[in-house]
Amino acid sequence: MTRRRYGAAVAAAVLALGLAVGVGAPAPARQDVVVSPTPEAKHPRVFDGRIYSIASAGPKVLVGGTFTTIRNNAFDAAKIQQPRLFRFDTSTGLIDESFRPRINGDVEAVTYTADGTSILIAGSFTKVNGRPVERIARLTLDGTLVTSFQARASRPVKDFALVGNRLYVGGEFGKFNGKEIRGLVAINATTGALVPSFTLPLARSRDRFPPYVQELDVSPNGRWLVIGGNFRKVGRAERTQVAVIDLAGAKARVAPWSTRRFVGDCAKSYEDTYIRGIDISPDNKFFVVNTTGAYIGYDRMCDSTSRWELPPGSSGSGRQPTWVNHTGGDTFWAVEVTESAVYVGGHMRWLNNPRPSPEPKGDNDGPGAVSRPGIAALDPWSGVPLSWNPGRDRGRGVEALHATDDYLMVGSDTPYFAGQLRQRLALLPVTGGRPNPAPQQLRLPVRLFLVVGDSVRSMRFDGTAFGPATTVSGPATDGVDWSGNRDGFVQHGRLSHFGRGKAFWRRSFTAGTVGQSETNLSASVGYVDHDRDITPFDQPYGVAETRTAAFTDGRVLYTKSGDSRLFHRGYSLESGILGGFESVVSTKDWRGARSMEMVGDDLYVAWKDDRLYRFAAPGGRPRWSTRTVVDDGAVSGVPWAQTEGLWAVAVSP
Prior knowledge:
With 653 residues, this protein is mainly beta. It folds into two domains: 11-429, Methylamine Dehydrogenase, Chain H (7 Propeller), CATH 2.130.10.10; 446-650, Hemopexin (4 Propeller), CATH 2.110.10. Helix content is 2%, strand content 37%. Strands 41, 42, 43, 44 and 45 form a five-stranded antiparallel β-sheet that branches. Strands 18-19-22-23 form a four-stranded antiparallel β-sheet, with no helix packed on it. The protein has a four-stranded antiparallel β-sheet with strand order 24-25-26-27, with no helix packed on it. β2 (51-57) and β3 (60-65) form a beta hairpin.
């Protein structure tokens, strides 16, 4: 989960939901760029063990884990024996040597309290400063144990999340504060007392051991709690490995949201749970789940990261992910969602790798795979890797990610990050970061561009009427030959299109002016399939066969030669990488399509019968029954059956 920074209170949002919690919920970081891939040099070094959790309040950062030895950045600085928990200041980079709590076991979760006067920690420890505790504790800012905090867990606490003065706690315990309760509780963050209105124990383990919570997170508005772990029942509701809990009102309840995608097994060693990370988006609309499990097949959620929409945008049974990205055989651990990126850490070698070759073994690259050793940034809309690729020595992996307004903080078990010695803790600044453009949504009226033969024609279109056509590009106009084009789309002044040589191309396209040079994205974005060379340029399956294409909300809708169905795959506008995973959108017969474009919630398709059709396509899913003839060529003068490309740009009404 995210250890969110504490800043301004969000009491108004909390009270508006009717939550029985205190003032001051953690605020999500404001990051409108993808952070710099180069870590700052001034921050502390951690010499052993692992970092499990990072939290902050302004420049004061807490780091928890299994480590024992740390030091300040200066090469000649003395090593400090400070096991499992320390604090430092991002403005100076210096360790706070006055903060010296003594903890005898692993620290898996840390946070500041809502009022900023205390610290909460949890894990497997049983003593703090020599005094007995039971795996959860409250400390003052100088590291003194708060003895009035009386929470007690019978077995390790794996994760927690704070909303106001209520702490949601998950772990392996079967008793909490002496009461029989399995895996999940809510407590008063000041006293440690159980919140009696929160009664959603776990039941029905997936293996022979008791059920437990591995990961959890609470949405920034305090409404939703998402848990993941070894369970098949939460309260009275059947839920397997992942559950969404509605915290609104006087009594929490399991939300009417469920999926069966985590019912399937991964490798035998993960019979309990393969959930490894959960984080909710800053806008409270979706969450991302990371998993382990080994490669079983691209139809399973093993070794994957996936996006899931929260209620009210998505509810009911049988929920499906918005996107999935596979490593092909390596574990994801931590995940952190910001406005611009989904950061994922683990010990992965590749991403965008749903079908490693040779199938079905896994643990290899395959068509469409890109190298992302140990850490990556994904496009939030499509789940496709961004170009950001600092690299790190993989080890066990990144198990802590924490975003603030100024940094992405990365905690792991290895010393090198981006080729630089950073010893388990890397702080990547927002300053120097790059924007990740959001998908643009077209609305009528538009200017259409049609590829016919070797040239591009343009005309205005308002949904019914067509303006006069003019040729804007071609051998006789600007020297560009469009022969061999296979459709495309324009976003942010760039035309991405499937074209000659079975490749995917991009060129500038501003105000109808075509850029003279173009980039072969298939050859330049970094696809790797070293052993097999199954596809041209090692690009994903189906790219060479793509016949028509349109773009909506991070996804390319497309048809393929030799196949009658309509598909979609993710696409990153920033990196130019096409998603490796192909999903079937429609099983109707789309072989008559010659070119297509999305405008608003409608898909316009030029058909082989010389007509232009409109399909209602909310959410990018065309409804065949809504097919309507827009033009038969008599009004527009367009030979629709001869179009090899159709795209549009916005114009003023």
